Amino acid sequence: MNRPLRLLLIHPCVGRHAGQKNYIKTWKMQPLPPALISALAKQTLGRHVEVRFLDDRFDKIRDDEAADLVCLSTETYTARRAYQIAGIFRRRGIPVVMGGFHATLCSNEVMRFAEAVVIGEAEKSFPLLLEDFVAGKLQRIYRTEGRSTERVRPDRSIYQGKSYLPIGLVEYSRGCRFTCDFCAITAAFNASHTHSKIDQVLDEIEEVRRPGQMIFFIDDNFASDPDSARALCEALKGKGIRWVSQASSTATWDPDLLNLMRESGCQGVLVGLESLNEDALKTMRKTFNLKRGGHAETLARLREAGLRVYGTFIFGYDTDTPEVFETTVEFAIQHGLFIAAFNHITPFPGTPLYQRLQDEGRLIYDAWWLDPRYRYNEIPFTPRGMDHEELERGCLLARKRFYSWGSIAKRFRSHALLRQGGRMAFNFWLINAMHQRDVVGRSGMPLGDAGDTRPLVEVDL
């Protein structure tokens, strides 16, 4: 090839109705995978590659887009749309590469719609793929065995001109050492945890931070390795950085770690509380949530440390009955959660939950993420403690009640820090109002673009 390789990176949306113009506002965060792939491509090929990036949530993908190679990172929710996009290019003879969690967990399926599949982390395998493609010997599978300890700084220049939420995304660690039965992250990484070099993370933060901007460490579980979490917090102290992340309840077992997080600029954490039902927590392999006083003590320790909480709850385990929704929402309001999520369990492929429901014959679809009949927030399995309508309606009503103005006001009054006013109080009202608007907007949304009725294009093996 006498000219640079034209590499087109595309981030697929979850889905949209036919003709839909506006996308879910709270889903408009910067996607790190294409920025990582762009960095790897430029590191590998230098001036011999030209990278373009299209975000399917904002950008129209034309049938005549110019490219020599197209790369998509896929999650289960975006898989159908990724296959639609792949068809746009494969009909013209342009090869497509796919990676991401869904490619790792469902590689045989993904291979039906792409010329090459990257399984596992891309830092080692993607450069080899590019070299093979340039040499005209692209392989079908590129697999990274075990965990990669290599990291590359994401090429965030690809985000220019796109309207993302004003929050800086940085990755410190990947994976989680726990084995929750519903978690695709644990399944993909085999319950392991790695982290980046702290100097590299600090450099990234300086690159992305803006005055007043929040940094979101997108780590699957920031506190999965408490020692590495402490090391980063020590490095962040005194730098004036405001950040949030995701952490298991086990982080609250160490008061020194919580205080260190706060001293380093942590404003709040997402904690998977999941259920108030002891039997459900046992089934999901999350009994550590019951220890050290359970949820109430977990939240008390977080409040004492001055950290806001985004609590997540899931419904639909066999011991759940219709009464679970009111009890859970009341708990979330009484404990003053900053924001919260109330969702039914979703059986992701490759997880013990999916395998169990499949073995019991309770999956409604062979692959719900591919079935054009499936709609977002629909129940793709047969629950036992209630029927489909009760489970679906219960989740929706839980969101509506939690994000009602009465609940928002009550939770605001329960926070002494919020009552003092300022930026934190403003953000509380703004973020809760955004979630209130999105309560109904996601439900009923098709996976993939409903306006693209062309059949998916499979690889001719």
SSE layout and pairings?
Blueprint: E1 5-11, E2 15-16, H1 32-45, E3 49-55, E4 69-73, H2 79-90, E5 96-99, H3 101-105, H4 107-110, E6 116-119, H5 122-134, E7 141-143, E8 167-170, E9 173-175, H6 184-189, E10 193-195, H7 198-208, E11 214-217, H8 226-236, E12 243-246, H9 255-263, E13 266-274, H10 278-283, H11 294-304, E14 308-315, H12 324-334, E15 339-344, H13 352-359, H14 388-402, H15 405-413, H16 416-419, H17 423-441, E16 448-449
Parallel strand pairs: 1-3, 1-4, 2-16, 4-5, 5-6, 6-7, 8-11, 11-12, 12-13, 13-14, 14-15
Antiparallel strand pairs: 9-10
Helix pairs in contact: 1-5, 8-9, 12-14
Give a quick precis of the structure.
With 461 residues, the protein is of the alpha/beta class. The chain has helices at 32-45, 79-90, 101-105, 107-110, 122-134, 184-189, 198-208, 226-236, 255-263, 278-283, 294-304, 324-334, 352-359, 388-402, 405-413, 416-419, 423-441; strands at residues 5-11, 15-16, 49-55, 69-73, 96-99, 116-119, 141-143, 167-170, 173-175, 193-195, 214-217, 243-246, 266-274, 308-315, 339-344, 448-449.
